[in-house]
Amino acid sequence: MEWDWAIDGWILFVGTLSACSCALLGNYLVLRRLSLMGDAISHAVLPGLAIAFLITSSRAAWPMFAGAVIVGVITALLTQVITRYGKVEHGAAMGVVFSILFAIGLVLIRQVADHVDLDPGCVLYGNIVQIALDAQFEDVPPAARNLACVFVLNILFVGLFYKELKISSFDPDLATTLGINATLMHYALMVMVAVTTVANFESVGSILVIAMLIVPAATAHLLTDRLGVMILLSQLIACFSAVTGHLLACYGPGWVGVDAVANTSAMMAVVVGFVLFVAIFLAPEQGLLAKWYHRMKLSSRIVRQDVLGLLYRWEEMNGESGRSMRRDEVLTVVGGGSLPTRALRKLLRQNEIVRMMDGRDVVYRLTDSGKLAASQLVGAHRLWESYLAKHFHLASDHLHEPANRMEHYITPELREELREQLTDPKHDPHGKSIPSEPM
Amino acid sequence: MSGRFAGSKIEARNDDHDAESPLSIHDMTVAYHRKPVLWDIDFTATGGRLIGVVGPNGAGKSTLIKACLDLVPRASGSVRFYGKSYRQQRGIVGYVPQRESVDWDFPASALDVVTMGRYGRIPWCLPPRKRDKYAALECLDQVGMADYAHRQISKLSGGQQQRVFLARALAQDAQIYFMDEPFAGVDAATEAAIVVLLRALSAKNRTVLVVHHDLQTVPDYFDDVVLLNMRIVAAGPTEKVFTAENLHKTYGGRLTLLDKAAQAVAGAGAR
Hints:
heterodimer, A: 439 residues, mainly alpha, ABC transporter involved in vitamin B12 uptake, BtuC, Arc Repressor Mutant, subunit A, 3 strands, elongated, B: 271 residues, alpha/beta, three-stranded antiparallel beta sheet, 20% strand
């Protein structure tokens, strides 16, 4: 398809507005664990719209918004009532309310569609291209104008009530006692969600709007731990999804050899879902990759320390002048595979062990700095054994295993404290000497 | 029975309340779904005292606090702070909810949370001012958490989170504090720090009402005690009220802890 700024420009503009206006409020839905509420309201406003159409027989914006707001608030209220008096869980109550209201809406819309020019499919999935085509006949399509108004309204809402929204999301009880009525803020948010949803019907539709409400905010939540940054990130992600979504919709099918244009709003949802997926892997702290990296780092440190401890004990047993430990002996104890080999290489690089030849065998010895590190490690091990023996009355053959695990996590401060509590012991329960702390 | 709830919202006469008392509760009944959870609560706090509220699970301890702060509706009765209603006295009442009542994954730093204690003094729609941040930092310092001011709250330990909550209460700079189980699930160091803080508040003539679980420490920590089990079993100075007999009445004998508690009482009497 040829790129035509007169049309594609409008699509980009409307798509971005749509994604950003939803994502802005989505932050608070995600933080209050009300994600489903966004879904519920976006579905439940349908009968409100239909009734507004029935009464006014037009597609004028104001009755539409009024109808949606009223039904949106009713949804939130009904959910509250059913949760309290029906003794069902909050999520289940929402499910009941919105599916029934949505069904009523669908029935009504079918009726309305006979009288008013209204396509049920359009309400469900949106028709962003139609908005752009409208722009050819009018200066500014009404859908775009409504979206822009709602976006500005949302910015004002979040900007003006930033502090109030923050405290009533985090600690509604405290907010209420301070005079910031959390229930009022809750319903204000629900009204804004209802209005935003209606404004988005023509662009992304009532089903896809939930993706824009929740996913950018959920992704941003993974990436940061500051509310302000989270809101900004959610906006960037929304922009990115809108632009990339439209580009993919135009050119994506061509790349796979299909001569067609995909639905822009659906592509936006796909892109934003993909962004979330990537964030789950790559998030700086909570991401799977970061977690995997930290685990790998930890296990290679443990293997390195095991090698140091092994060589230390060997040299302790055989004396300074005794035979050095052979490579195959080291690997038999710490296990084969790539991890120990890499550990040996890194230790050599860090100059903590040296590699020598003893006849035809490769042997390792600790350097002075290696000896120091190893003595601290073995010291921690034996201190922990002494501590366990003293406080847990474990038999001496039960001490080695737990100490073997703990030795890698005992910090210098903890070592110090153990020494103090055990009044600076010289020997562990097996009678082996505990290396003293270097001055 | 229904009659007593039917005519619920009778305005309290002010002569039911002691205008000098930081907190006076008159004939308060609270019901959830019409089932009363607190009956006929009458209580008048003495200023500047540390007051422990103890009672078994489901005794209505948290509800007592929430009903005082208008967070749950009262079926009948009235609450006054220095003779005035909560609405009029918001500014002098501080609240520390249970630590589990909030989501600690919320994107906020310790300083953000403490600053929230000042939100009541900031006009609507205005952001916290510089001096609010400084006041919040000062409060964090008072609980020994100044070094953690910019740490994300989910990365704090349970004890540290509780200290942040207390710092937030300090930031409210109230005359009377309500604390819901501040000692729940904290380490020994934090418990000691909280006790020091409570004493400091009391020394400044602040009144603190604390929901507490550990009967053994009651005589050590609190000047007054309220024994609660859906009604007030006994209330008054700890050395007079915290007796084995009253505890037995409160816990209905279904608690083996009673022996321990009795020992604690005996220990307290010996001193």
